Amino acid sequence: MSALPRAAELGLIACTVCGQVCRNVPGDPQLDGDGVDDAMACPRCGSTLRRRKPHSYAHTWALLIAAFLLYIPANVLPIMRTASLNDVDDNTIISGVVELWVKGSPNLAIIVFTASIVVPVLKFLALGTLLVSSQRGSGWARVQRARLYRLVELVGYWSMLDVFVVALLTALVRFSVLSLVEPLPGVIFFGLTVVLTMLASMSFDPRLIWDGKDTDD
Fold first, then answer.
1. Any transmembrane segments, and where (predicted)?
2. 8-50 to CATH, choices 2.20.28, 2.40.320, 2.60.40, 2.30.110
3. Checking DSSP bridges between strand 80-84 and strand 21-22, what pairing results, if any?
4. 21: which strand partners?
């Protein structure tokens, strides 16, 4: 069965801003330089039409590596300090999850563990897989990889849940004169990790998945 023609081969290009599909796009239908056709602008919103996001691989790799480096201190440094009359306790993400579990909040512990550990690690693995396979021009599981990218974008909006939990606990405990909860530097590193992974996901051009060889590796 012959491969279906791509939009670029048919002279079609979609605006990444408003979604307008334009016809009769001049220039080479194959990838060319930074993927920008300077002669074309979207007739609806006036944005420059891009066959591919400029320098998508370089930007995505840079953001992903930076996010991974920041994720290390985000897990090593404490993210929250709880203080009462008799005790002061600094918690990292893992120790906070354990404490929530031990003190009778298993549901909240599972939510924090999922948002703070499982989701970031899976995003690193998923984006790394998309980058490597696309750069190799692999035809392997293109539909599944496109769905994986959409899933990464979807779960990205929930990645800041751990920061929200710390902020909520801080606000609630401030009503008590006998105890205190305050955020620590680990929260900053974790927040930066989440932001950078979201920017990495936005920098990756999913259209790159469909470039390259048409046969499975």
1. 60-80, 108-133, 154-177, 183-204
2. 2.20.28
3. unpaired
4. 14
